[in-house]
Write a structure and sequence with these properties.
20% strand; 265 residues; seven-stranded mixed β-sheet; Rossmann fold; alpha/beta; two-stranded antiparallel sheet
């Protein structure tokens, strides 16, 4: 009996013809080791395994785990676990790993942040090629001055280079979701935020984008109050016009602004 997707896990299984396209985009090599997030019935798993040295598939659904273990080839390990609780870097003891997966839409952002935390600067996660709701993919590749540009864009850009690979229609999955999907690759890199600025940068960006339609002078108010420096003073020190909006700031400007707050803290 074929596996049935479960709504509580946000499961939408990839159709075989689209799995072929996704694997071609991932471009696995015979000497590479992979981790797959949410293998489902294994439509992507077996294709990756046939072209890679080893694959560890992490699945939360115990019934799917049973089926996967029964059919798994020798170079595939099936782990029953919640990806949000799993230590990805524990799988990199034997060398760098690549990540692939069809991410559940309801927890895609937490998974992305987990991947960024594990991959940035570790050198043990090389990249992650994942399927996402198209709107989330739009946010990942957004540029300053657009409506999709925000916290997720910025927090990703400072720790990974993002490439959009494919767009998938609802019919690429079973059952068809109500939205289009996209495949993106995150190639991890050391964070461009200096360690001493990490806390300031993160708090500042989150605060700004909670009120993204306000001017910077106003949007930064709560963060400025907590930092003991006026928003006007920090913006002046960073050479940024206080009447601009948060969504217009590029990464170098955000770094300069965080440094201005840090110096005055």
């Amino acid at each position: 009996m074929s596996a049935r997707p479960k709504r509580r896990f946000g499961q939408h299984f990839l159709a075989p013809v689209w799995a072929d396209k996704v694997v071609a985009a991932i471009d696995p090599r015979p000497d590479q080791r992979f981790v797959e997030i949410g293998p489902g019935p294994g439509v992507l798993t077996w294709r990756l395994a046939s072209r890679a040295a080893h694959l560890t598939a992490i699945e939360i659904d115990r019934y799917l785990v049973q089926d996967l273990r029964r059919d798994a080839p020798a170079n595939v390990e099936i782990v029953e676990a919640d990806i949000l609780d799993f230590d990805l870097l524990s799988l990199a003891a034997g060398g760098p790993i690549r990540v692939a997966g069809n991410l559940p839409y309801n927890i895609s952002s937490p998974i992305l942040f987990k991947l960024l935390d594990a991959g940035s600067g570790s050198g043990r996660l090389l990249d992650a090629t994942v399927m996402l709701q198209r709107e989330v993919a739009d946010r990942l590749v957004a540029v300053p001055g657009t409506k999709d540009y925000g916290v997720l864009t910025i927090f990703t850009a400072v720790r990974a280079d993002v490439t959009r690979l494919l767009t998938l229609p609802p019919g690429a999955f079973r059952p068809p979701p109500k939205v289009n999907s996209a495949v993106v690759r995150l190639t991890f890199k050391p964070s461009i935020v200096p360690p001493e600025l990490t806390t300031t940068f993160g708090g500042m960006v989150k605060t700004m984008f909670m009120q993204r339609r306000k001017t910077l002078a106003n949007a930064l108010g709560p963060f400025a109050d907590a930092s003991g420096i006026s928003a006007a003073a920090a913006l002046s020190a960073a050479g940024i016009d206080p009447v601009r909006r948060p969504e217009t700031l590029a990464t170098p400007e955000l770094l300069a602004l965080a440094a201005a707050f840090q110096r005055k803290a």
